[in-house]
Records
---
Amino acid sequence: MHAEMTPKIELVGLDKQFALGGGETREVVRDVSFSVKPGEFVSVIGPSGCGKSTMFNIIAGLELPTEGEVKVDGAVVNGQREHFAYMPQKDLLFPWRTIAENGALGLEVQGVPKKKAVERAKSFFSTFGLAGYENAHPYELSGGMRQRAALLRTVVQGREILLLDEPFGALDSLTRIEMQNWLQGVWSEYSWTAVLITHDIREAVYLSDRVIVLTARPASVRLELEIDLPRPRELGIVTSPEFAAYEEQLIEVLHEESRKAFAQQNGAEKR
Amino acid sequence: MKTKRMTRGGFWGTVIPPVAIVLVLLVGWELAVTLTGMRPQVLPAPSRVFVEGFERADIIWGHTLATLQVTLIGFAFSLIVAWAIAIAIDFSGVLRRGLMPLLVASQTIPIIAIAPLMIIWFGFGLLPKILVVALVTFFPIVVGLIEGFNKADRETSNLLRSMGAGRWKEFVYVRLPSAMPSFFTALRISITYAVVGAIFAEYVGAQQGLGIFMSTQKNAFRTDLVLAAVAVTAVLSISLYLLTFLIERVVIPWSFKERKARGAR
């Protein structure tokens, strides 16, 4: 037997409570523990409003957990931001910067001279299907291209782990499928360690090595599902019986949790 | 629809309508005065305003330069103060809560009461006039800047922080550029107040300037010359207003292009 590999990310008993005022607190995340291996692509899926984003902010170091630890390569990194490159749901490209300059933003913020940062960003343009758009402005790009530019901005930073928060949520379904297919391709090429938050079961199965389902609020891990499908995955794989079986399993659990979340929200309204 | 028609009309499409309306009004005014035989001390015909004003063009020009000087120096001072206050407020919630009521209160001061006091305190020189101009113009700029800074939302802030930016870098990379379009909107509102503010300050007491010129001519019952000075004031205000568009295009060309692209879509 090999000694077990140190996970790239390990979450240990994450807990998050917000003070509501009047001495009351709301628990948003409860005892979340899971780990991600180096080069693994893990999706996190859960009913809306379940606390996914809070959990994500804790991993990214933007918020501190009330209890628990975030570890990278075995070391506690609570509140540290330099290990993760974060891609928000909106592309947030700045209209006053060209696409290359937008791509260079992270490096610039980290102190790389602008010219060098832009050069490095430009070296990714053909991989991201953006060649020829280096000096364009965001308003000249389609939704899919903008999202690719946002991912480029995330990847250029050269950080160990990518955190993707519903990156394709705002795209139309055709563009989204195209983007998923493309992301799958570049991911197998670069084998980034990536955590993806999504609402989309098909997206989660198609892209991931493992899918983690969260419960309704407070979020905790309901199910971890290993996706054992060969890579590279063709688009047609979504119609295969194996794929459908994974989807079915996830739909079942997720619907149960969504119903709970729905009941919670209704209850809160009546109160 | 409206913008489409404007672009189709081009330069002349935007220039001809206002000029035509002004011409119609002037002709109506001229006719009314001629037909009623009104005394020029009460209401001079526009032709008289023009002729009399033109005869004293060099004198009026001298006063105009003085007013322009007060306007520009006062406005520059106002800009510095407004930027300083807005940045300070952006960085500190305590300052925001502490300063905002004071700033709002400053806008309720009747200029008509404070301008003469300024002369008592600071004499007939440039200083009281600069202060009056600043007082009437800084507030819209402060509000425009504060709102502009806040256009950068929580998510953008998270993105920058995840990249390792502190508050200052967040300000420089996002909040400042995000604020530029609303800054220029505020600038346009303010610059029109600036000219009026300068004239008001001069009206109360000055050696040179359109304000004191109007005051003297009014006392001499030269209504025609007062109106000539008013016309010059209007031209001055409109020119400065148009100038802000030009500066905006030079400073933030992206804003103009983006708006145009959105409009076209």
---
Amino acid sequence: MPKLTVNGKEIEVPAGTNLIEAARTAGVEVPHYCYHPGLSIAGQCRLCMVDIDKVPRPQIACNTVVAEGMVVETETPRVKDTRRSMMEFHLINHPLDCPVCDQAGECWLQIYYMKHGLYDPRMTDEKVHKPKAVPLGPHVILDAERCILCSRCVRFCDEITGTGELGIFQRGDHSEIGLFPGTALENAYSGNVIDICPVGALTDRDFRFQVRVWYLDTTKSICNGCARGCNIEIHTNKHRTHHNQGKRVARLKPRFNAEVNQWWLCDAGRYGFRWIDDDSRLTAPSIRTDGQMVETTWDDALGALAAALGRYRPEEIGVLASPQMSNEDLWALRRLLDGLGVVNRDFAVPPREPGEDDKLLIRADKNPNTRGATLLGLAPGAGGLDAGGILDAAAQKKVKCLWVLHHDLTASGFAAARVTAALEGAEIVVFQGTTASLTSARAALVLPSAAYAETDGTFTNFQGRVQRFRAAMPPLGEAEADWRVFGRLRARLPRVAADSALGAERPEQVFAALAAAVPAFTGLSYRTLGDTGQMVKA
Amino acid sequence: MAEKILTKNFDLRDSHTLRVYREAGGYRAWDKARGMEPAAITEEVKKSNLRGLGGAGFPTGVKWGFIPKGSTAPKYLVVNADEGEPGTFKDRYILERDPHALIEGMLIAARAIDSRVGFVYIRGEYVQPWRIFSAAVKEAYDAGLLGAAVPGGGFDIVIHRGAGAYICGEETGLISSLEGKKGWPKLKPPFPAIKGAFGQPTIVNNVETLVCLPHILTRGAEWFAGLGTKTQGGTRLYSVSGHVVRPGVVEAPVSVTLRQLIYEHCGGIRGGRALKAVVPGGASAAILTPDEIDIPMDVDGPKSKGSMIGSAGVIVMDDTVSIPDALMVVARFYAHESCGQCTPCRESTGWIYKMSHRIVEGKGRKEDLDNILDVAKRGAGTTICAFYDGAVGPYISYIEKFRDEFEALIRSGAHA
């Protein structure tokens, strides 16, 4: 591995590394616009100039590969002066409309001008005018005047999605990003161009004008949209609650994970967060009284559920867990069901529309924790019924207590008549989940769950990577994390022995309990998982 | 008058035909080259001191030597016939009047670099040259000079017409365009000799450069080198335009002085007027004043005055010319032709045009001149290709050498 010096600091990096990445390992940021580690080198913005020993002129760091003994300086007077010039060139035709630009606050023109520009503007002539507020597709809108023509979006569509909708048209300072005739930017990953656009040229039709970005809080999380488990940030609006139409979650952004999603996130995941703040969220336990659902206290609701579980023999109880639940939820449930001796349990409910894996991120399985549910033993116990069997047994009145977690069976791949027969056949249907549905509407007891964004936990993705997500905000209303509900329930069930998972006060304690009990998770803890997760043992 | 070499067939009747070219001794150099080792051809060209005649003046044999030794990849010979440098029209004469000389030159070069396919990228506006050259290529195929019969695996010529962008005359912009992409110059490294057209080792040579090859092979490298100066061999074609008595293409040894070109070859300034300024090497070369014309017109002469020989397009201006007007015209050209890829060039060519236009309109401000100079210097040397450096030549030299004229115009708001 070549050794080189960056700003006096000696570093050793793999051969073939460019100077931007090499400098990064030395803790030095080389400002740049067009370079993106996930895309080909364009060398267009000319901002990343650095001085290299024995080279007469500053060179672009993005297209210069490290060499043994190279001496690189990023802060010489000449480099700083060049950088200031490049900032001026980038901004002479820019509209400087920050006060009305949605990118303000996270715009690299603003950041680098304050850091590296700070010249007195000299451009007094009429600027070049270009198209503004042009929708490129369902999610992305273009302001060509703000564009610095870094071509990241073009390269993304050429190299990552292979869809090639975008090009740079015209020449010179009339150059502009645009769609090829007859196309729209509607590929499954179109939102990523908004993330990689360093300026306010491409903004999010969904997010723009909802809330200023400096009011947002950021929480590390995991997308729950499919089995990939893309690493994300949840951006929440808590300080200006009258903004963002009163909703807490403002947007989701991808978070880099080399092993899972690199820099990217699909549009289905990116825009699939509405339900978290939707009016359909269940916010209080309710119980059917005289044919009407009536809100009740957790104490009464748990009392009713404990009574039902105590009333029936284990084989008369059927439980449909969900691969939408965290490892912690699932393990606590598993311990509870084992304590009760319930073997009629399953988590796999077929979807109505079969999904499809694509070549990039999207997985056919739309559940974030199928692998976890499998490893944690939520499949039918010895001699137990699977999901379909549980429904049929309920219809035949063999299963009398049907406890459904999160699934809307009426929107599943099970035939409507089969579901109806089960929901009508069971003596008591309990629904526990985040969101009201036709299934919850038929339950006699409804328990509100916290959304993944409202609680700490882990999912195990299809690769077997266990990844942490964190609470971005408290649960809505009286909703509660499932694992905590199971613990409180156990306290009311003398049959079920105390247990470290069911007695936990914090989710990492549940995780510690499952790591101690399930070989695949041996040695894992919240601390070792870190921000990017760890693989389960094969 | 010195011996005509590159132009010796120009005035023959039907000089564009294979018959006349052969009668004048054509394709004998190729007969000789066929019997030579490729390395020996390259060596001969190196010894001849032939320098690229498209603009950059790079030694041709050295360029060929950059093709990776022993590479089994297909190698491409690309002919730059996109002659777009304002004030340059010599390649047009070759394509129209001596197309077989180019074909013969290509055959020789292709043998030297082991190429089986040559692309000829012809400027889109060159309709007549394209027709004539295409007919010559057909004649050559019919005569078995091209195609499978060429020793060493055959040699084919593919003609590609440009679509009118100046930047497609830049070596790698041309390659992008040839590949069917937008004519954007490519990042270097990799250089075309390593990874050029369609990702393969590629040599791009100018039309006139290749036309020198038959003469070098038949009459020897020493003879060719002896025609020129210490660092550049041969004669070359000077495109002389503007206010001379006899404008046109002039062939002269590269040791000819600019004064000789203007006053001897072209009959001096029209109407006996005074010379005000002259651009020695196409629009991208820095302008020279009348006291700077006693220089040899090889690669080194204009360089000694801070200019360049470029494509040897000599633009002569007499005392009727307004230099601020001339700057506005070239600035408009560069603003129009900048490909838009690199930020400094894309943004400042337009800005400088706006400033220069405002000055000519009588709305100049006293800070404009220093702003143009500063912007030009800040962008110089920071871009992917040499386009912007070419624009900087006129921006700076026009103002620095004729500052009084600009300042008078800005002060009065009107031309004197």
